[in-house]
Target: UDP-glucuronate decarboxylase
Amino acid sequence: MKRILVTGGAGFIGSHLCERLVNEGHDVICLDNYFTGSKANVKALMGCGNFELVRHDVTSPYYAEVDQIYNLACPASPIHYQYNPIKTTKTSFLGALNMLGLAKRVRARILQASTSEVYGDPDQHPQTEAYWGHVNPIGLRSCYDEGKRCAESLFMDYHRQNGVDIRIVRIFNTYGPNMNIGDGRVISNFIVQALRGEELTIYGDGSQTRSFQYVSDLVEGMIRMMNCDGFTGPVNLGNPNEFTILELARQIRELVGSDSRIVFRPLPSDDPRQRQPDITLARRMLDGWQPRVPLREGLERTIAYFRTIV
Model:
């Protein structure tokens, strides 16, 4: 049993990670300020003796004796991270700084939940970890993109200068139960619109591509990375199966059983044209890790969850 701190633990991904760690018997502290997370996401864990929920903002230091730290705290959807871009940048930078300071003090291993957005609107396809990215540093998305890039830099410098035991994962589009109903992400948008009988809104012509991994596959990859000795990363965690946004909209409409029209709106600035991870490194370093849940199966589970809250 380990003592594990999860920042952003009441969020979409964090709640699934906490559940997995608690079920494995670890002593878990879940930190969240509830900006995008929710107590409802971890309600089932509240009665567990090895789970503790703490309201805290990672822009302020936090102190605890722990063995591992998963740093997930940061709004991750455009609607939320653009709501207060300065706060988003502060969360990425100060949150990383504070958690790295804690890891240094208590000699904990720490994992940074980075993002495929560090690649920006990529010139390389699919994206490997060696690719440095194509990011607009002054655009509307830069608070998130550059905040995560800066956090990666800080992690590597703490590792090189102070010997902190770090891990970096770059998370590609992930979906599943506990997604925020109003987060503006494409899968939750389409599901909610289809369930409500509203028009399905596509930004651009729908030819842009994304690769979608189910949340349980991501959690498995994160845990393997945390417990992998001698490998700091960064490593891509995502599903290499690529779909156009138009294909996704049609499949969700079919699975919901909706007759909603598909409508097209202007593409937001700096929206990536393509997203597809190269997961060769993850397969090699993380005991053959790769996504197991097909898109259709994952969408059916996610739609079932949204039926309970829409």
In short: The two ends are 38 Å apart (CA to CA). The first helix runs from residue 12 to 23. The chain is about 35% helix and 15% strand. Residues 238 and 263 are 28 Å apart (CA to CA).
